Structure formats: C-alpha cells, structure tokens
Sequence to fold (76 residues):
Amino acid sequence: MLNGDSRIGPRIAWMGRSCVSSSTIDRKHQRSVLDVALMHLWSLATTKLQVLVLLCEVEQDRAALEHGLATVLDEN
Fold:
C-alpha cells in the first residue's frame, strides 16, 4: 500500500477482490468493472505514477491492466 492516503488501498483492494476477481463474472463484465475502477483511481491519484502503483496493488491480470491503463491514458 502507498504511504499516502491509507483509505485508498483497502477500498480499491476490496473492489478488486469482490468485483474484478470474481470467477462468476464473465470477462466482458470484468473489463467494464475494471474500466470504472481505473477511472476512479485516476480521479484519486495526482500523478500517473500513483495510478500505476495503485493499479499494481489491485490487478494481477496483466492484460486487463494494460487494457485499462491504455483506455485511461487515451481519454486524457
């Protein structure tokens, strides 16, 4: 977890376990949930580096991480 706001890590980590990592959710829904989580992370973080660190804490699926990060960066 980051040394900054201690509320961010647990909230996002919970989101990752309950929504994104659930085996009952199909892959397309996982992507949309991840995209929402990424937009939330972007609004919380003040730098791209903070976003990358938070994403690395939350998402273990590298392909989903790269897809979501590319989506966020393309929108800015």
About this structure: Residues 1-24 have pLDDT under 50 and may be disordered. The longest helix spans residues 27-44. The two ends are 25 Å apart (CA to CA).
